[in-house]
Amino acid sequence: MSGIYLLNLTSVGVFGMVLSAAFCDICWTRKKAFAAAGSMAAILLLQAMIYFFIDTNLVTYVYPLITHFPLAVVLCALSGKCLWSVVSVLTAYLCCQLRRWLALLIVAIFSGGTAMQNVTELAMTLPILIILLRFAAPSVRAVSHYARSVQCQFGLVPALYYGFDYLTRIYTDLLLEGVLVAVEFMPFVCSVAYLIFVVYTSKEWKIRSQLEQTQDILNLQVEQAVREIEALRESQEKISAYRHDMRHHMQFLLACMENDRIGQAQAYIRQICSEIEANKVTVFCENETVNLIFSAFAGRAKKHGVSIKVKAVVSRTIPVSESDLCVLLSNALENALHSCLDMKQKGLDGTIEVSVYEKKGKMFLQVINSCDRDIVFDSGMPVTDRPGHGIGVRSICTIVEQYGGVCSFLAENGWFILRISL
User: Fold this and answer.
1) ∠ CA 277-280-282 to the nearest 5 degrees?
2) What integer is the mean pLDDT of 332-336?
3) In what helix (H) or strand (E) does residue 151 lie, and over which residues does it extend?
4) How far apart are the C-alpha atoms of 218 and 215, rounded to whole Å?
5) How far is CA 328 from CA 36, 230, 319, 375, 411, in A?
6) Which residues of 54-66 are buried (b: 16+ CB within 10 A; e: fewer)?
7) Which pLDDT does position 113 carry in this prediction?
8) What letter would DSSP give residue 358?
9) Which residue spans within 217-259 are E strands per DSSP?
């Protein structure tokens, strides 16, 4: 055998082992790097001993036992991930086909021989390795953090190719003999893998599209809630300004009375009362955000003839952000108000009872509203097929989960009950 052949054989071994280590999710330290380098050198030394002192052809047949198996064991010890270590070795073996096929293409174009193929493979080793390390390795390593089922799916094609290559090219001559089953096997695998990829990608895209749509709706709800709070805060500031300017109002009224302009004074009083009532914010508790939201919904409920009772004991500062509190309370009250308005359209009375309080650093919320519809539950959550509905429930659950809380939904005896603890 020529020196170029031996050098090429060594280079493909180094190529595969370095790529396997790069694909494996290892937190590299100086000690681990030396251990990996030493293990790879020992594997190459074992190959050389068998090649020169036992049988040159034996290396090819026992390559899985003297190279791939010990390499997988070393990577498993370094990363602590047995499954992914095997997948990394199989994937690196599959990538070795890149240099081989490109070399075969060049040899076919220039009508070269075995020597040209060895030289071409040797010349391509480093550039292909750099490209794979730069662009492919980070993405491959990322898959190691997925579920084991996904890791198995990822490693299926490399595993099938590994078995196919050894069974049809190394241990038998089925591929060279042109046995159709062997020739058509990998195209069959590629077709199946492509179809699985299309189905999986389509499913993932649909889920991502739904999540993005839900996120857009949630963002709109947050923006709307923030706008409502700002509007109510402005109203509260106007009331404060009215109180501050009360002295001026009194002086004007006194002047009207002294000049016997009673009608003008009465009209002015009615105007001021109307403006104050329009901007009134009812105080339910110490927390400004809770007051503003409850006040806004109490006004809407009163406008539509829905009875609402609120009992709130919430301190000025709570461990929930203002935007999350807006979305949480607004969605809970919005759903309750919609249910009562549906009942009002049927000529029935609607009632909402809200209680919120703090205890031992946690906030508890309960919203009870009249409900005359049959509620369908799925895994404890109310579901509906009405367009535009159901987003509020998902918003509530998302925020509760974000704070590590608990929420429950219950429908019984004509009442719908929402309980939240966070």
Assistant:
1) 130
2) 90
3) helix 148-165
4) 5
5) 53, 17, 14, 21, 19
6) eeeeebeeebeeb
7) 87
8) E
9) none
CB neighbours (10 Å) of residue 240? Answer: 11
| Residue 364, helix vs strand vs coil | strand
**Are 324 and 402 within 8 A, CB to CB?**
yes
Predicted confidence (pLDDT) per residue in 136-152, tens digit: 999 999 999 988 988 99
- Distances in Å between the Cα of 257 and the Cα atoms of 250, 260, 270, 275 are 10, 5, 15, 22
User: With contact defined as beta carbons under 8 Å apart, do 60 and 114 qualify?
Assistant: no
pLDDT of residue 416: 94
Q: What is the mean pLDDT of the chain?
A: 85
Q: In what order do the strands lie in the sheet with 406-412?
A: 307-313, 351-359, 362-370, 415-421, 406-412
Are the C-beta atoms of 221 and 213 separated by less than 8 Å? no
- Whole-number Å distance between alpha carbons of 347 and 372: 12
Q: What pLDDT shows up at residue 288?
A: 81
d(CA 254, CA 259): 9
pLDDT score for 302: 86
Band (pLDDT 50/70/90 cuts) for residue 356 is very high
Nearest-angstrom CA–CA distance, 12 and 22? 15
Q: Are 410 and 380 in contact (CB under 8 A)?
A: no
**CATH T-level topology, domain 217-244+282-421:** Heat Shock Protein 90 (3.30.565)
Tokens coding 114: 């075995």
User: Span 43-68, mean pLDDT?
Assistant: 92
Read off φ and ψ for residue 171, nearest 5 degrees: -85, -20
Is the pLDDT assigned to residue 264 strictly greater than 70?
yes
Q: What integer pLDDT is reported at residue 231 of this predicted model? A: 60
What pLDDT does 352 receive?
95
**Assigned token pair, 308:** 């609402």
199 CB burial (10 A radius; 0-12, 13-18, 19+):
exposed
Instruction: Assign residue 287 a region (left: φ > 0; alpha: ψ between -120 and 50; beta: otherwise).
Output: beta
Q: Where are the domains of the chain?
A: 3-183, 217-244+282-421
